Amino acid sequence: MRIAASLRPFPGETTCGDVVAWWREGDTALIAVADGLGHGLPARLAAESFMAAVEDNPGLDLAELMRRADRSIVHTRGVAATLVRVDLRARTARIAGIGNVQGALFGERTRRFDGAAGIVGAGVRNVRPLDLSIGPEDVLALWTDGLRHVDLDEASRHVRAAPQQLAERLLARFGCESDDCAVLCVAFDGAAPCAPTPFAPGSGPPEPCEPGS
After folding, report:
1. How high is the pLDDT of residue 8?
2. Do the Cβ atoms of 171 and 147 come closer than 8 Å?
3. Which residues have C-beta within 8 Å of that of residue 179, sequence separation ≥ 6?
C-alpha cells in the first residue's frame, strides 16, 4: 500500500487550510483528510487540531473517533473531515465523514462517497460509517471541496499505481482557484498484506502546504 497527497493553498495565502494525515500499523492504515472552514491560519489551526485529536485516539471505532475529535476542537472554527480505516488483510475500507470531503474507490467500477451534513467542532451526532470492499485494481482517492467533479480518465488510470503522480494530476486537472485544495491517493498493490511497522504517523501528516507540493 502506497499513500501520497498533493495540496495547494487558496491563491494569495501562504498557509493551506486543508490537512492530510495517515498512520499505519501492520495490515491496517488510518487515513484522515480535514478541510478547515475558510482559509489561512485559522482554517489551518482547526484542521491541525482535528488531526491531533485523531492521533491521540487512533484505535477507536471511527464513529467514536469522530465524536471525540468534534468535542476536542470546539474552540476552533471547525472542519469538514473524512476518516478511512483500511484493512489490507480483509480487503475492506471503513469510511466516516462529516462535511464536504468526498472520495471514491476507482476500479472496475467507481464507488463514490460523501460526508454527512454537519461541521466537526460544532456538534456531531449521527456518524454512520460506510464499509466498502477493496478490489485488486482499486485506487482510493479523497479530496476536499477545492476540487470539482473528480474522475479518472485514461491517462490517470495509467498512473494509478503511482499515487503521488495521480494526486498531482488530479489536483492540476480538477483543482479550483477559489479555495484551498487537497487530494490524497492510495494504491493497494493488489491489497497484499504489508510488513508490520510501529504505529506512527506517515510521511504526509501535517506538512506545510506549499503550492504544487
Report:
1. 96
2. yes
3. 10, 39, 144, 145, 146
